[in-house]
Each structure stands twice: as C-alpha cells, then as structure tokens.
User: Fold Glucokinase from Thioclava indica.
Amino acid sequence: MERRAGELMMTKADHLTLLADIGGTNTRVALAQGTDMLPETIKRYANAGRDALEDILSDYMTAQNVQDLAGACVAAAGPVRDDVATMTNLSWVIKAENIARVTKAEQVFVLNDLQAQGHALGYLAPDAVREIVPGQPARADAARLVVGVGTGFNAAPVHEGPGGRVVPPSEAGHITLPCQSDEDFELKRYLEAKHEFASVEHVVSGRGIERVYAYMQGQDEATVSGADILAAISRGDVTARAAGEMFVQAMGRVVGDLALTHLPFGGIYLVGGAARGVVPWLEEFGFSAAMHDKGRFSDFLQAFPVFVIEDDYAALHGCAAFCQSRIDAQEL
Assistant:
C-alpha cells in the first residue's frame, strides 16, 4: 500500500536514501527504504533555469521534510570519474561532496546513468521487462548488457561476482559509427561535414533519428522532431519509413558489435525513449537481421536474447539497489 508523503516521517530519515536520475532536460528525484524505491515520493524537475543539481535537491528535501539521510545515489547522463560527473548535454558538474553538503547523507555515490540501469536489473516489476528477440537459456550469473538509446547513446555490461554486481561505466555512444553500405558511408560523410566526426550517438539516439530524417530530406539541419517522425512512420510516410529503417539497422549493427565485445548470454536490455519508440518496427525494419549479420559469427549471436525495459524509473530503482549494497558492505 502506498504511503502519503506526510507519513514518511514515521520512518526515521537516517533509514532513507535519496535517489536522483539526471537527464539533459529533466531530473527525477525519489526516496528509498533499503532497495525499495518509494513511488509516492517521485518528483520531476525541469533543469532549465537551475544553476546546479544542488538547487533541485534542496527544494526536494524541503518539500519532503527529510534530512540526515543514510545515503544518496545520483545517476548522471555523462562520464563519471572519482565521484565527479560531467553532464554531456547540460552545463552541470556534479560532485559527491556537494551532494553530501546539501543532503547531509552519510554516504554519497555518483553513477553514470547506464550503470544505474544495470543495477536495476532484478529489481523491476515483471511486466516492465519484455522480450523482443528470443535467445537461448543461460546461467543465472551470465553477463548481461544494458543499452541506452534516448537523448544520447551508451551501454554498460553487467557482471555478477562473488563480491556482488559490477557494472563498469563507458562512453560507448562516442565510438566510431559502423558503416557497411554505400548509403551508410554517405550518411557518415554528411555527419562529418557537420560534426567533424561521426559517432554512434550521432545516428543511434533520439536526436540521431532526426539527423537521419534530415539527411533523407536533403536538409542541412534537423527540423522535425523524433515524435513527429514516428507519427509519420505510422502513417506510412515513405521518407520517414526509410529514415526509421536506417536508424533501426544502425542500432542493430551497434548492438551486435557490443554483444560480441561483452558476450551477454544473460540478455541485452534496451532502455530509453528512442529505443522504446521504434519497438513496433524493429522486426519489419531489420533490427535482428542487422544485429546477427556478423559473418561466421552470425549463428553465435542467436544466443543473446534482447529485451526492452518499459519502466521510466528504472534508473531510480538501480540507484536504490546500488546505494543499499554499498551501505550494507560498510556495515560488515
């Protein structure tokens, strides 16, 4: 049964943890008790007009009337090093020490957003995870791979070990865009003329499908939103469908490359709004065919099932799980 916000004080504040999922546009904040994220505490804040994450966290804690937390864990859409995150699409630098000062949390952790998604596996409702490409059965401790296709692109492997779960960070969206066909290379040259370098994220992301559509239209700048492109695909628009097919096949190639790099026999998990948006057309547009098209390793890739995560708050669940695991480790 859900608790009202006013009832949170029945739980000692120092038994609660604070969670935050920081995107380029919005920040979601919630509280957790142990590994259980408390849905009634979720708040969404627009980042526009805010100088720093600390402004949002201060407002949130005042609204929830909590302080002296057991821990805090934030997931940032950008590279993280030594407890400092630099946002990729937002001029914020997030430091653990600043979060500790605002929240009075006893322990503070800063993760990349895909790390948080990896830590969410096993903590999501069964109906929040849907298989879209079948694979073969695997051991419970088999490696898994989380692939985020939203505003940007990233991926993170998930490993289970004797000391607990390990989810190494990466910046996979900024590797070189893989090309096979003449049209792929033409798109690459189009992107290089604008950005000097053509990365995976330039195509396989929410902004990426907008760039692909602009390329198909012969335009220099993307002026049609991803949502409008998906709507046009639904209507049968020829150009939109061609852009969608190119986007989906590029995503399939990249996922296949990452699968061979990490061998996720436990499954590949797609997250993010852009990935969910094209799920209805994945098979029609050739996702699995592109993913499996790896020469003599094509049959080998059939082992890896692909799932889509349909929980917008998965990263918050992952923050809760990670934070509690570190608190428990400190108490041993």
Observations:
- Residues 1-6 have pLDDT under 50 and may be disordered.
